[in-house]
Structure formats: C-alpha cells, structure tokens
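Journal club prep — side note

Before the paper discussion, L.F. wants everyone to see what a predicted structure for a comparable chain looks like in token form. Sequence:
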Amino acid sequence: MDDLTKTISDARSFLQRADDILQTVLVWTSPPVSPVSDKWCAPVGTLEFPSRMWYAATVHDLTGEKNRGYKHSGVDLNLDRSPWGDVDRGEPVFAVAAGRVYGTWHSVKNLASVVIEVEHAEQPLYCRYWHLRRDKTFLELRPGADIEVGQKLGHLGAYARGGDHLHFDMALDRFHPGCWLISAVRWIDPVPVLEKHLGLDCIDAMMRKGDS
C-alpha cells in the first residue's frame, strides 16, 4: 500500500509539473490583446455584497514598509461582513476590463489564478486574479480566449492559511500566473488604475476600510 501511495503521489507531482510547463508555453505564445471595450468594473461585488462592502486587507507594497515588512504586489480584497473570517469563500470574481486570457494556473492545493491582458493608457496591462476555485467557470478559461468586461472568471476558494480573499495585482510585463514578485516584472499599484476608470468613491471606500 505504501508503494502505491508513493506512486500516486509521484504521478500527481509529475502531472502538476507538466501542467506548469504547458501553461508557461501557452502563456508565452498567446497573441497580443485586441481592445474590445473601454468600460471597467470592480473585480468583486454583487447586488447583495456591492464593492463598497469589500476592503483591501493588504496593499501594494514592494518594499514591505506599508505591510509590516511583508512585500506584496497588488491588493488582497476581503468582504467586510460579520462574522468576519472566511465569509468571502464562493463569492464571484469578475474581469475588470475586456481583454484576452493570457494564462491560467493552479496549485496542488487547487487554488487557481488567471491573468487577463487588457489595454490601459494605450499599452498592454496584465491583471491577475488569484486564489480562485478550480471549478467549472475557471476551467472554461483558455489562453487566447476573449474576455468581456464584467465576465465571471470564477469564485473565491479556500485559502490554505485561512482568511480567504482575492489577490488582485497588475503588471506592465507578461508573467506566469503562478509567479511571485519576480524582480524583472514591472508591478504596478492597481488602486490608481481602478480609480481612474471607476472613480474615487468606490475604491476609496475599500482603502479606507483597510486602513481602519
């Protein structure tokens, strides 16, 4: 039985490595995005729990000065609702702008991410949505597929260390959906970008809650 368990574990590890290689190949061979729409929306928020009810628990900080020494790209968005904890799990995640799937990835713990290439300020911008369930909605995403603004990309999954949330970051360069803070990538703060397209009120409400 031990030999069988080890064989199954080795097979899973092999399949995960193969999937990572395949996704990397698909990512780097995806064609450039073609702008479809200049409309934008928030990455989270429904009629029941609008975006104003969400807050940034962790902010964009490549130095660690703002996050108590923790270097972080983008923002971690949480739902501000009692009882606080993993109340975000299962909430839908939406594409902030029209674009094209640049690449997808999932970890062995079944948390998935997708990078969508959009256009901002007349140049490509790569938006990542991380900690999603590897469910039917996510699995339907394919590199190169066109994405509409507001299209559902998936649902928030169970974060391994607790505290389910959406990790949302942006970069001016292409990057693998599963990478973390590669120095060669030009990471940018998504807050000013969202403010430019969505207005100050919605995004400022998120940031104020995160500072409180």
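L.F.'s comment for the group: The mean pLDDT is 83. Keep this in mind when we get to the figures.
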